[in-house]
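Post-GPI attachment to proteins factor 3
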Amino acid sequence: MAERTARLLLLTVTVGLAWGSQGDREPVYRDCVLRCEERNCSGDALKHFRSLQPIYMSLAGWTCRDDCKYECMWVTVGLYLQEGHRVPQFHGKWPFSRFLFIQEPASAVASLLNGLASLVMLRRYRASVPASSPMYHTCMAFAWVSLNAWFWSTVFHTRDTDLTEKMDYFCASAVILHSIYLCCVRERTVASASPHHLGRGNS
């Protein structure tokens, strides 16, 4: 029974991944994107789009197709709300209003603030803990791994691409793995420094 349930769950997840999200499966959304690309993303129309595109948008990697997908996402959301339906997800994410070139402003700012907090605590730790401490280098390594993860989280929420998504997930996984390693090292360090252990060593 458990094996059958697991297979059904796996099939459901696989089908869900194959189909995508509700919003980007909508014919209205797909037709809108197709028409927008045909109208704006080739020939002289593309040159016109690039001439009007702000420099910060092009530097952040926003293409004509990306702009079409963004605009059509909100067209589809408007139709959903007009019909009294809930706002759907698009490509596995909830729709967010873009600010300048930042795709998810609130999440990007939150990740940036978490990174700054990690940097402040890293500086405090380095100033107050001597380098000869048993856990010093392990904790310093963990701090840099965390800073790297918050950096890529900020980049990912600023501009969602295949590369930034992978870097965000991989670096977040590295923080989890290093947390486990840190706990194991600390357990061993505390055990080796305990009076019981020292007594056994001197006997």
